[in-house]
Amino acid sequence: MHNLLSTGDLEFESRHIWHPYNSTNSKVPVFPVTAANGVKLTLNDGREIIDGMSSWWCMAHGYNHPQMNQAMKAQIDTFSHVMFGGLTHKPAIDLARKLVEMTPEPIQTVFFADSGSVAVEVAIKMAMQYWVVQGNTRKTKMLTFRGGYYGDTTGAMSVCDPVGGMHSMFTGLLPEHHFVPRPACKFDEPFDESHISEFKNALESMHENVAAVIIEPVVQGAGGMYFYSPDFLKRVRELCDEYNVLLIHDEIATGFGRTGKLFACEHANTVPDIMTVGKALTGGYMTLAATLCTEKVSGTISENGAIMHGPTFMANPLACAAACASLDIFATGEWKAQVANIEQKLRDGLMPCAGFDTVAEVRILGAIGVIEMKEPVVMEEIQPMFVDEGIWVRPFGKLVYIMPPYIISDDDLAFLCQQLCKVISRI
Ligand SMILES: *Cc1c(COP(=O)(O)O)cnc(C)c1O
Q1: Is the pLDDT of residue 321 over 80?
Q2: Is 183 inside any structural domain?
Q3: Residue ranges making up the domain that contains 246
């Protein structure tokens, strides 16, 4: 079924609807989508383009997946929503069971949130409550790394990169936390202790006021598309233990296979105390995220209090049913070969760009390909160029990157890379 838009629709849209990080009189066009199947989006004018973004990391299984659709239809005919305060249901229990099973061992408890940003808010509150219920009211700060991205609500924003997250625009609104430079050791580089010295010094001097360290494991996503050494992450875990500080991993972008491991922390064989997941959790079919924690965290809070969060749409049954279906697809393990294949094909397909004068670096990890330009791209120019070449790519600043759905065929992936390089060669 197609949902064609009229000229009137498009005029209304441009005057009355906000888009992400955009003004209502932006010169960057928006493209109307009328259908989506597999890895392809159909536009209003009938053109089909290949989605290189998985709609911002989440559509791992592709659009209109029969198993996903079927699971959601079945839940709609049962019931779509019921409050979670005082009530429970099978989709939530099934999903929690799957999550506890999939995540590394001491992770045992699940809090369902309605978006990634909210999951991060809950993670931060959880970390603070952990200390407060033990009578420690001094541990109220987060310690984190520059170049991070954790979402757009104020608590989450307050730990995002201070420059990229435009903290100066929101002085007075955002709580102030501690920052150290981004992990200095790149993914393939040999780690040595000097790489972590600033973090270690910060912990040493501030740990009495730090509730938790929050970090995106191995891949900093929307804050810079930067891959760092798993050995660095391993040391972060050790130092958090040494200084009695909790460790939060935000796996919202990296989770569910995107980096080549089911969760990115598995590159380092570390386990956080608190972990957030979202995005591909539902395969992109519904908005849902979760904050998971160890029994140490949930038990400590529960002994002396309660978690102080409870959204209206907590554990929405339809979203939980979508997530159950999505996790069943991940559980087949097919993603492993798909992601490994995508990684190989991205290396072949994007490395030619590394030779262009305009390109600073090309880097690839799992099903993520990044072309870092020397100068920021001009969105209103480059966005229509991608669409004209039959692909959907949404750069920001100097970063042109793709993370296609895992189900992409070799031909479509080769086309995506080839057209991407073609556009890059022309700017
Ligand atoms: C996208 C993202 C978030 C925020 O998730 P939303 O669902 O957009 O609120 C948080 N952390 C990371 C690492 C993300 O990539």
Answers
A1: yes
A2: yes
A3: 66-332
Render pLDDT for 146-157 as a digit per residue (tens, 0 to 9).
999 999 999 999
* pLDDT band per the 50, 70, 90 thresholds, residue 359: very high
284 is in an annotated binding site: no
Last residue of a domain, one of 275, 301, 332: 332
Q: What is the 3-state secondary structure (H, E, C) of 183-224?
A: CCCECCCCCCHHHHHHHHHHHHHHHHHEEEEEECCCEECCCC
Q: What are the DSSP calls for 400-413, one per residue?
A: EEE---TT--HHHH
Instruction: Say if residue 310 carries a ligand binding annotation.
Output: yes
Nearest to 341 by CA among 414, 265, 262: 414
Whether residue 244 is found in the same domain as residue 359:
no
| pLDDT tens digits along 15-61 | 999 999 988 888 888 999 999 999 999 999 999 999 999 999 999 99
Does 14 appear as a known binding residue?
no
Which pLDDT belongs to residue 2?
Answer: 60
Cα–Cα separations (whole angstroms), residue 120 to 157, 165, 288, 298, 321? 10, 15, 12, 16, 22
Mean pLDDT, the chain, as a whole number? Answer: 96
In the structure, which protein residues have their CB atom closer than 6 angstroms to any atom of ligand 1? Answer: 115-117, 120, 149-151, 216, 221-222, 250, 252-253, 278-279, 289
Domain CATH code at residue 344: 3.90.1150.10
* 275 Cα: distance to centroid of ligand 1 (angstroms): 13
Average pLDDT over residues 92-100: 98
The residue contributing the CA closest to ligand 1 atom 8 is 116
146 neighbors 182 (Cβ within 8 angstroms): yes
Is there a single domain that holds both residue 338 and residue 367? yes
Ligand 1 centroid to Cα of residue 193, in Å, is 30
Rounded to 10 deg, the angle between the 317-331 and 90-102 helix axes is 40
Residue 407 in tokens: 């189900």
- Of the candidates 235, 285, 233, 289, the one whose C-alpha atom is nearest the C-alpha of residue 261 is 233
Residue written as tokens 């042109």?
A: 400
What is the residue type of 378?
V
Which of these, 362, 393, 388, 381, lies nearest to 427 by C-alpha position?
Answer: 381
For the stretch 113-134, pLDDT in tens is: 999 999 999 999 999 999 999 9
pLDDT for residue 1 is more than 60: no
- Work out the angle between the directed axes of helices 334-350 and 410-425 (0-180°, nearest 10): 30
Catalytic residues, by residue number, are 21, 149, 250, 279
